[in-house]
Amino acid sequence: KVVTVDVKGSAPLWMKIKDLADGVTYNFRIRAKTLTYGPEIEANITTGPGEGAPGPPGEPFISRYGSALTLHWSNGDPGRAPITRYVIEARPSDEGLWDILIKDIPKEVTSYTLNLDTLREGVTYDFRVIAVNDYGYGSPSAPSPSISGW
Fold first, then answer.
1. pLDDT tens across 90-114, in order?
2. Is the pTM of this model over 0.70?
3. How far apart are CA 63 and CA 142, in angstroms?
4. Where does the source fall among the domains of life (predicted)?
């Protein structure tokens, strides 16, 4: 499959690729164009956590107090290096694509509180937690029970 993306100005220089199978190696080729196309750069990328990355944290559970949600989780296997931070991903329950919600949660923390205003009204969400170490992102936790935005 070939995808051409026209990047202008201060647009992000990354791309989220959907529908890749876990544990499969994909070949990616990139080349830039100013007046003409430059040389191509090629890399084989295997999806999923790298060797030495952390295992999944415990399944998050959610407590709700007024206009705030708190996600709680337990530590998993740190892998070959200490955990350096956590990431929380969220998705609407009726969609398959996870998006990073919070990306720099300190390693000592096993809960995070967010305001319901950050979620869309009337939408039900799933959350999951990912541990990160010097080897990369680990496997995600199981999804939380679904919860409604407001």
1. 999 988 789 999 999 999 999 999 9
2. yes
3. 17
4. Eukaryota
Taking alpha carbons only, the member of 127, 125, 123, 132 closest to residue 142 is 127
Answer whether 85's CB lies under 8 Å from 134's CB.
no
**How many residues in the chain?**
150
Residue 92's DSSP bridge partners are 125
- Residue 94 phi, psi (nearest 5): -95, 10
CA 77 to chain centre: 18
Positive or negative torsion for Cα 107, 48, 51, 1: negative
DSSP 39-67: --EEEEEE-SPPTT---PPPPPEEEEETT
91: helix, strand or coil:
strand
- Determine contact, residues 114/103, Cβ cutoff 8 Å: no
Architecture of domain 61-148: Sandwich (2.60)
